């Protein structure tokens, strides 16, 4: 009966070896699954906070001939805060600027990144269409007399936020209401609203 006993022992060892491999595979899968779940939970539990934007100054850099009027080239200095626990990387985009209900110009936002829980200063080159402003000459002259000019701006910023090993896409929509002195270009008042959406999938 010895051959039979050895055969049973061989089968038992083989079975134990297969079980050991299965256990090791199960642990690996479990660890990967746990890491994925942890990353997703981190995003859900730490609900993304909306970043904040604040226009510090508006500076006239040059006037460009666009006969029969002049286009104004400006630099918008903007303070941006990322209150979230993850860094963000965003693509280039364009901020639309409106005056009296019409699109007056735009400001360029270059691609970049921002560390978690940090602040940074952005210098955005902008150009205002003199011909479009001329269509609102009466309103503009009245604003010059009052020393208050209301500008509206809107922008959509898209990019990725890195959590553990995964990049999650996000989108930020910003609406700005800015009151400036059309003579000195001082920022008198402003209201900025932003909304951030993170795509888990």
The top-level CATH class is: Mainly Beta
Number of strands: 10
Strand content: over 45%
Instruction: Return the string of H and E elements.
Output: HEEEEEEEHHEEE
CATH topology: Immunoglobulin-like
Shape: elongated
Q: Distance between termini?
A: 61 Å
Mean pLDDT: 81
CATH architecture: Sandwich
Organism: Davidia involucrata
Protein name: Water stress and hypersensitive response domain-containing protein
Keywords: Membrane, Transmembrane, Transmembrane helix
GO biological process, one term: defense response to other organism
In short:
InterPro entries: LEA_2, NDR1-like, WHy-dom. It contains 3 helices and 10 strands; from the N terminus they run αβββββββααβββ. It has 201 residues and is of the alpha+beta class.
Can you describe this structure?
The longest helix has 44 residues, at 2-45. This protein is α+β, with helices and mostly antiparallel strands. The chain has helices at residues 2-45, 130-134, 137-146, and strands at 52-66, 69-82, 88-90, 93-99, 102-109, 112-114, 118-128, 149-163, 166-180, 187-198. Its main location: membrane. One of its GO terms (cellular component) is membrane. One of its GO terms (biological process) is response to desiccation. InterPro entries: LEA_2, NDR1-like, WHy-dom.
